[in-house]
Amino acid sequence: MEDYFLNTFLGAEMRSLWVGLPRLFTILALGLLAASTASQSAAAACPDIPMAVAGPMTGDWALMGEEMRRGAQLAADDINAKGGIGGCKIALVVLDDQGNPVTAIAIAKAFARDRVRFVVGHYNSGSSIPASQIYAKNNTVMVSPASTNPGLTEFKLWNVVRTAGRDDVQGTFAGEYMVDHFAARNLAIVSDGTPYGDGLANKARKALRAKGHPEKLAIKVRYDQTNFGDLIGRMKAAKIDVAFFAGLGDQLGRLIRQSDEADMHLQFISGTEPWSRV
């Protein structure tokens, strides 16, 4: 039961954060906008206030982007139903960064040009970190519901808020759990090679070694990889029993399915819930 709990708990908690906390923090952060409209009467006509959502609306992480959009839409609807801010309505602006840092930077520059002052995003740490620098220079508040790389907040930018636990906390917990419950097993750490995956994997690895039980195998895959035959073969050869996967749910779902098909029934531990479209 404990194994199942770890496999699903962090992912389930993240899902509730993606849908619930963006709504909460959006409402809180939008208070920053109230000062600019407080002098207007509730009945006075005024332009809509843009609230942006930036995340992966297409591609492998589109499901997560859709959750971000829905959470922000709930917040905007709640505020508008109560009269908006100073009588002005919130208008949701959604842009697709495809989980790509280059696209995220272009979006951040576009928001700066259009004087957008509040952004829910981004999803991927690799997108949030460079975009946050642009937002900070252009007086834009950024709330990320999912970026967990410690570097996002270690720059100590005034405008950055996140609602998800950091990799150093999640990774350390996972590593300690693996030693406490699977010390007699052969352990592997698999990263998807992104800032998120590498940060999580590095902390898990440090926790394993601090407890005197280093992993038997450490492997990186590509973040867009869909066939894991080579990885599964290497884990079979190393007689791996338990694997910590530091990556996103789509890949984890594929990896679990392909491992089962190869008759290698591993115990997987991860910071995200597994899912797959195929």
Helix-strand blueprint:
Blueprint: H1 2-29, H2 31-34, E1 49-55, H3 62-81, E2 90-96, H4 101-113, E3 118-121, H5 125-137, E4 141-144, H6 151-154, E5 160-162, H7 167-182, E6 187-191, H8 195-210, E7 217-220, H9 229-237, E8 242-246, H10 249-261, E9 267-270
Parallel strand pairs: 1-2, 1-3, 3-4, 4-5, 6-7, 6-8, 8-9
Structure description:
- The protein is α/β, with parallel strands linked by helices and 278 residues long.
- It folds into 2 domains: 15-162, 3-Layer(aba) Sandwich (Rossmann fold); 167-270, 3-Layer(aba) Sandwich (Rossmann fold).
- Helices cover 49% and strands 15% of the residues.
- It has helices spanning 2-29, 31-34, 62-81, 101-113, 125-137, 151-154, 167-182, 195-210, 229-237, 249-261; strands at residues 49-55, 90-96, 118-121, 141-144, 160-162, 187-191, 217-220, 242-246, 267-270.
- It has a 5-stranded parallel sheet, sandwiched between helices. It has a 4-stranded parallel sheet with strand order 7-6-8-9.
- Helix 10 (249-261) links the parallel strand 8 (242-246) and strand 9 (267-270).
- The two termini are 27 Å apart.
- 44% of the residues are buried.
- Residues 1-19 and 35-43 have low confidence and may be disordered.
Low-confidence stretches: 1-19, 35-43
Please state the overall shape, judged from the principal axes of the Cα atoms.
elongated
Rounded mean pLDDT is 84
Classification by helices and strands: alpha/beta
Question: Termini, distance in Å?
Answer: 27 Å
Give the tags.
278 residues; 49% helix; Rossmann fold; disordered N terminus; 10 helices; five-stranded parallel beta sheet
